[in-house]
Amino acid sequence: MVATISTRGSSEGLLGVLVMALLSAVLSHRVTLAGLLLGFSVHFKIYPFIYAPAIIWWMGRRSTSSSSQSTLLGKALGFLTPARINLTLVSLATFFGLNAAMYFSYGPDFLQETYLHHVTRIDHRHNFSPYNIQLYLASALPSYSSPGSSSLSSLRIESIAFLPQLLLSTILIPLFLAKRDLPGTMLAQTFAFVTFNKVCTSQYFLWYMVLLPLYLPYSSFLPNKKLGLAALGLWVVSQALWLQQGYELEFLGKSTFLSGLWGASLGFFLVNCWILGVIIGDVGRQQQQQQKKF
Q1: What is the pLDDT of residue 205?
Q2: pLDDT of the residue at 150
Q3: Can you quote a single GO CC term (predicted)?
Q4: Which of 57, 191, 217, 227 counts the most CB atoms within 10 A of its CB?
Q5: What pLDDT shows up at residue 152?
């Protein structure tokens, strides 16, 4: 699948290498290297920024009974460990340094195509997301004729779809799972980010597939064969149903928007939500790791 996706001009394989290198650097406590990789990965493709909260939270010292930790100020100062500060400064310096170089090379077009585009993008082809029909309809509206339009009148649901996505993947999942198992948390974050994204295509599946080998050994899917086969079967079949509806729309010219395409999108979304729930439950049952102090 990695080879097939890469032949389409996608760089997801290289991004997977960067994410695994980042995880390896964090787990081996090479903080400066981790900061460099995090900053470069986010510059390379935006989504790895979701890992920053989980990594920062995972890097905390084990709780102590020191009286200085009993006050709010003490807890805040205790949170600011040298490792966390180092990771933050190095990653930000790397990210902003690379972005400055790109801006000086390409100008405002760099900001538009790299960041602002994601707020108003309306990709409606080969998009498994439940937002697909809304994006398809919005693509015909005059307000979308000029890319980068940021007026309040053009603000629609697809422009704020990232709110539940970011709440789940950057706040709730890291807060409750990161100290249990960092690789499993990163998998859950990525799975949630892709599932709730307003644009969900096959290449995004590689973002979480690269983390599966670190989670599967303790997952519920391997010991419970029925559960594993059911999850895999439903994941594949729900995609196939969507692709069949998409084929009729895009190749045969049939109007399959409702209820075929939208129903298939909802079905795939619900299957992914169920799988995400199993992953979160598995990671949540992991014993809190005994970490070395940074």
Answers
A1: 92
A2: 44
A3: endoplasmic reticulum membrane
A4: 191
A5: 40
- Token look-up 């010219």 returns 253
Q: Are 203 and 5 in contact (CB under 8 A)?
A: yes
DSSP 178: T
Q: What is the pTM of this model?
A: 0.88
Residue 61 token pair = 């010292």
**In this predicted model, what pLDDT tens digit does every residue of 59-108 receive, in sequence order?**
975 544 454 566 777 777 778 899 999 999 999 999 999 999 999 999 99
User: 195: closest CA among 130, 125, 281, 99?
Assistant: 130
- List the chain residues with pLDDT less than 50: 63-65, 67, 145-153, 290
252 vs 103: CA distance, rounded Å:
43
- DSSP assignment of 4-53, as one string? HHHTTT--HHHHHHHHHHHHHHHHTT-HHHHHHHHHHHHHHSSGGGGHHH
CA–CA gap between residue 33 and residue 199 (Å, rounded): 31
183-217: b (≥16 Cβ within 10 Å) or e: bbbbbbbbbbbbbbbbbbbbbbbbbbbbbeebbee
Q: 3-state DSSP call for residue 127?
A: coil
- Percentage of the chain with pLDDT > 90? 61
- Chain centre to alpha carbon of residue 11: 16
**What CA–CA distance (Å, rounded) separates 146 from 219?**
47
Reported as a single tens digit per residue, the pLDDT across 102-128 is 999 999 999 988 888 777 666 667 789
Total Cβ atoms within 10 A of residue 245: 20
Tell me if 122 sits within 8 A of 144, measured CB to CB.
yes
Contacts 24+ apart (CB under 8 A), 236-239: 238/264, 238/267, 238/268, 238/271, 239/128, 239/268
